């Protein structure tokens, strides 16, 4: 019997030809970084395959970062994706393509793009309501502006790290309500935030807002994101300006970026809005819905603790992009923006330990003990999939990180 080709991906594999996410990898034998495309359990050296096939896209794909491809714009993204699909599905290309496939477990994955700016949002009504109930029990759970604009803040792009990078427990000032004065030390309320990130490709001009309808002209794709959070540091510092040291020590992102085009079948309408939106945020007349039906799973030390549904997010990525540029702020290639914590209406759908334990009141039972917040040695993993064409699934890979002690 002839040996099966790595291109013969089993039916139902979430990383089949309908997906083809992009990443950057290296090998032990050859340390240089290269653009890779995942197909099943293998990585295609996209640049080498393009060169072997005499493709006009060899220059874009033969890079050490996705940034040149990101900057090339939507027409190039579409054309390169069509070429890649043909390379992995046309039997006539197999003799040329197969030598450039490497098993996933033989490569090292890297941060696939050079991050420019980083913005994080707060777009889940369920998450925001839970937080409001915890910290404003005698007032309204949502602030008056929440349903009129996507709330966000500027993060620290230099601490975005690829999946698999250890997370050092941060130190800072913290003060419990009963403490007479603040103390300095390692965070004792280290948390996660299960999110979806988006990476900008085509830039925009300073002073020119990006409208809702131009979202797909500027955003290349999406990925899983874990915005690690030191809740005790954050609680003491965030009044009146917002998150700072409690958020800026590490943000983990998946090594794979899924092109928006691979998620056409996962498009869904966002939840009904309770108030009329200002024109620049009003997406009622768009050609297709701006939400994405992404099914996220959160695991701690290999044990599943939550399944946050991205389809419940009140604000869409297109609205977030429109809002963060409406004042004339420009986009740069490699800009990253996060959705904010993804949480659903059920307890088992909450995307943070803050919510799952109700700020430490209710411990989570794990096989290796109880948790309210993360302990040194804990490993958190986010995985996700989305509905694909013809009943398939589109895998979004994973983002993982292990907590190590403070320094």
From TrEMBL:
This is fumarylacetoacetase. Keywords: Calcium, Hydrolase, Magnesium, Metal-binding, Phenylalanine catabolism, Tyrosine catabolism. The keyword Signal does not apply. Residues 18-112 form the Fumarylacetoacetase N-terminal domain. Pathway: Amino-acid degradation; L-phenylalanine degradation; acetoacetate and fumarate from L-phenylalanine: step 6/6. Residues 119-403 form the Fumarylacetoacetase-like C-terminal domain. The keyword Ligase does not apply. It comes from Streptomyces virginiae (Streptomyces cinnamonensis). SUPFAM superfamilies: FAH, Fumarylacetoacetate hydrolase, FAH, N-terminal domain. One of its GO terms (molecular function) is fumarylacetoacetase activity. Pfam families: FAA_hydrolase, FAA_hydrolase_N.
């Amino acid at each position: 019997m002839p040996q099966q080709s790595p291109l013969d991906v089993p039916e139902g594999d979430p990383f089949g030809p309908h997906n083809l996410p992009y990443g950057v990898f290296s090998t032990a034998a050859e340390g240089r970084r290269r653009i890779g495309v995942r197909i099943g359990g293998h990585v295609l050296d996209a640049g080498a395959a393009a060169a072997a096939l005499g493709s006009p896209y060899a220059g874009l794909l033969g890079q050490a970062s996705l940034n040149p491809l990101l900057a090339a714009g939507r027409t190039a993204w579409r054309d390169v994706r069509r070429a890649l699909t043909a390379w992995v599905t046309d039997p006539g290309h197999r003799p040329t393509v197969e030598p450039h496939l490497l098993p996933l477990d033989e490569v090292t994955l890297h941060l696939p793009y050079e991050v420019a700016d980083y913005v994080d949002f707060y777009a889940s009504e369920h998450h925001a309501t839970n937080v409001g109930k915890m910290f404003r029990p005698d007032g309204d759970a949502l602030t008056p502006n929440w349903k009129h604009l996507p709330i966000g803040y500027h993060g620290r792009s230099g601490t975005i790290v690829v999946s698999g990078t250890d997370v050092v427990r941060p130190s800072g000032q913290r003060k419990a309500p009963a403490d007479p004065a603040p103390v300095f030390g390692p965070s004792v309320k280290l948390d996660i935030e299960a999110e979806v990130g988006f990476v900008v490709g085509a830039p925009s001009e300073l002073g020119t807002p990006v409208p809702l309808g131009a979202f797909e002209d500027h955003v290349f794709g999406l990925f899983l994101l874990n915005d690690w959070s030191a809740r005790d540091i954050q609680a003491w510092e965030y009044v009146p300006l917002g998150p700072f040291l409690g958020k800026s020590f590490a943000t983990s992102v998946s090594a794979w970026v899924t092109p928006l085009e691979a998620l056409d079948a996962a498009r869904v309408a966002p939840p009904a809005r309770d108030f009329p939106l200002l024109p620049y945020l009003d997406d009622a007349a768009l050609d297709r819905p701006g939400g994405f039906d992404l099914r996220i799973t959160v695991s701690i030390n290999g044990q599943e603790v939550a399944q946050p549904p991205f389809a419940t997010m009140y604000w869409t990525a297109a609205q977030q992009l429109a809002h963060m540029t409406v004042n004339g702020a420009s986009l740069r290639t490699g800009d990253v923006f996060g959705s904010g914590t993804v949480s659903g209406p059920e307890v088992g759908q909450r995307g943070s330990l803050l919510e799952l334990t109700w700020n430490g009141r209710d411990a989570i039972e794990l096989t290796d003990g109880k948790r309210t917040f993360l302990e040194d040695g804990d490993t958190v993993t986010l995985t996700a999939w989305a509905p694909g064409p013809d009943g398939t699934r589109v895998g979004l890979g994973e983002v993982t990180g292990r907590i190590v002690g403070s320094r």
